[in-house]
Amino acid sequence: MMMMFSSLRSSRRRPSQVFVLLTITLFAFDLTSFVVAAAKAPLPRTSSSKTPPTDSTDFIDCNDPCNGGDVNYELIASVQTMKMNFGNYTYRGRTFARPNKKTGQIPEGDSNHMGPTMYVKPGQSLYIKFRNELYPEQTKNISPNPVEIYDYWSRLVVPGEKIKYQYYKNPVSSPELMEVDENNLPKSFDATNLHLHGLDIAVHMFDPVGTHNPEASHIAIDPGQCYCYKFQIPNDHPDGMYWYHPHLHGSSAIQLWSGMMGLLYIQGTFEQELKTKYNILDSREFVIWDPIFQDITNKTTDTDDNNHHQHQHPQHNIEVDEFLLGQTTLSKIHPFLVNGEITPLFDNVMVNQILHLRVLCATIENENTFIIYKYIEGKDYSQADWKTESIPFYQIASDGVTYTGNPIQRNIIVVAGGQREELFLQFNETGKYVISQQGIQGMQFFDMYGHPHDQLLAIINVVDDNQNDIDNDDVEAEEAEAEEALSSSSSQEQQQPSNIDIPNMIFTPGYTKEETIHSHQIVKTEIIVFSMGANRNQVPFPQYYVNGHSYSPNEINFYANPGDAIEYILINANHNVHPFHIHVNRFQVKEMGSELSTDKYPVLAEVMNFTENVWRDTVVIPPNGRTRIWVQYKNYTGKTVFHCHFLAHEDTGMMATLFIGAPDIIFHWQDHIPLLIGGGIGIIVDDDNDHQITLWLK
H/E element holding 422? Predict the structure, then answer.
């Protein structure tokens, strides 16, 4: 049976339509009048029975080459054991990292869990051979078995055709079954695929790459299979920091939690100007990651009378102590890692010279604050006042796009999953500095127990030109002398004038002012509401929704014609944040706001602190708030998605399908959407003729 869709309708008002005017106050904005039209009755939510194509030309024999690009890489997904940078701890997980050919082990050191860093230039073709060497027994849409990291999910049972979750009331009594949406259930942890995050390239979530088939299935590369990804980088692609990670619905979160990720740089004028125009040679990466570690040594499994697994497995956390500069509470949480390490040392940063820090927030379900303080022995940084005590720094680019104007001075930034920030740091005194994550009540900076927490993310050791400030009693004298000579030589090469005026620097922008989207280009406005449901006391994960519905892979939910400029009002109905990410199309941020008080939550003002018209591919929707963005669909057509980039939310429903290049048939969810705006409910109005909600803003 073919999918059933409603007819595609114009978003313009017709005389025959019936409307109601809702006047409500939307946060702190002047936008107060809404007119909403919708379907009279819910539309059928049917799925296609058509078998997805299995003969994609992009699947290849693993012995065949995939090297026809100007730049060619191979990614191998496998399970490896990696050494932590403290104690005698190892962890085993899925990764793109490759063991040393001689030792057979993953090398120790920073970023050891990450895949190879890719480099490509505008105008080049990029081919990636993706080889899946993960375990085959976890592949075929089955619920996880007991060895999986999120133990809660192993209590899933399949009574008949419906997947249900067995839970125990508190206090524990007889087990009950709660039905959950099988489309949005974590599963298939060893089937995988690849997403190049932020790149302006062909749509590549569905098979084959660039598909225009509305019924196309997700690319799913099973263990033992290989896929040849072929991309053409546009000649005018902004150069900067991007990244890659898996994106198969149901397994993307667990695979990123496990460490499957890597960096990708588009190389162009920005990097040339750093070196030749300003002599900035010290560029370093700062990748924030929030894995969940679990001690599997004491795990036991029992079975109840109904043959349902009951796992007696409390979550154990890695014990970390004195090396963390007095962070006595860190052993009680799952820590944030930077470059694969707990509180790494960024050594030999030269005084008065510029450190170019390239920040990626690769967290799965957390935001991070980024604040710099001068290190003081015994200081409690959780109580530090970032407004008065922090060291200022500068933003020069966001999400791979260099700013049109000058660098922006900040004392704090808040980064969410998927976002990148390029920063300039400059210190006028030697000594140690710390980069701090401060847990803020009311934001999603929570550990697994729901409490905000603090952590020193990294330490920076600032030295002068003739200083070698490495404290290592185990290093022999001659080795220390050689290292000092190397450090001195490096510092001379990197020496810069101490009077560099960062606020007045100018770089070639990623986008010119002529590429700014203007109001007269906007053809329609659409509402996108992120919300969640289910009782988290009953199930281990809530179900997440876009416009009141969880993700369905065989439905087209939004569309855009090539060349369309569309305004999206992104609404967050929850008290935590959601980072919104749209694939292969970046956007301009126009407005942000929240119902919550910035007096009560001071950092919320920083979450909403943005430069108007800044280009991004991932943006935060503030808690109980909204973000307004403008998108223009210029270069690529086909079937793609947008979603919350807390991938645990995406895997459990917070994703929608976008079709660029409107097909002959279309489906819109807009049958019943609780808007939950400003403390009120947006009432849906009957319309006999049109199934598409239309929103006008006055």
Answer: strand 420-426
The three-state secondary structure class of 330 is helix
> Is there a common fold for 20-43+517-697 and 274-467+496-504?
yes
Q: Which residues pair with 221 in a beta bridge?
A: 192
Distance (Å, rounded) from C-alpha 47 to C-alpha 185? 17
Q: Which residues contact 272 (CB under 8 A, 6 or more apart)?
A: none
CATH code of the domain occupying 59-150+186-267: 2.60.40.420
Q: Write out the two tokens for 99.
A: 């063991």
Stretches in the chain below the pLDDT threshold 50: 1-55, 137-175, 295-333, 441-452, 469-483, 485-493, 498, 537-538, 664-698
CB 602 within 8 A of CB 385: no
CATH number of 274-467+496-504: 2.60.40.420
Task: Report the half-sphere exposure of 359 (CA within 13 A, side-chain side).
Answer: 29
Report the CATH fold assignment for 20-43+517-697.
Immunoglobulin-like (2.60.40)
User: Tokens for 650?
Assistant: 């995406």
Q: Contact 666/4 with Cβ under 8 angstroms?
A: no
* Per-residue model confidence (pLDDT) at position 211: 93
Structural contact between residues 509 and 403, judged by C-beta atoms closer than 8 angstroms: yes
Span between the terminal Cα atoms of the chain, in Å: 43
Residue-wise pLDDT tens digits, 570-613:
999 888 889 999 999 999 999 999 998 888 877 888 889 988 89
Q: Are 132 and 248 in contact (CB under 8 A)?
A: no
What is the residue extent of each domain of the chain?
20-43+517-697, 59-150+186-267, 274-467+496-504
CB 690 within 8 A of CB 18: no
Tell me how far apart the alpha carbons of residues 552 and 541 are, in angstroms, rounded to a whole number: 18
Instruction: Please report the pLDDT score of residue 604 as a whole number.
Output: 85
| Both tokens assigned to 174 | 């007889």
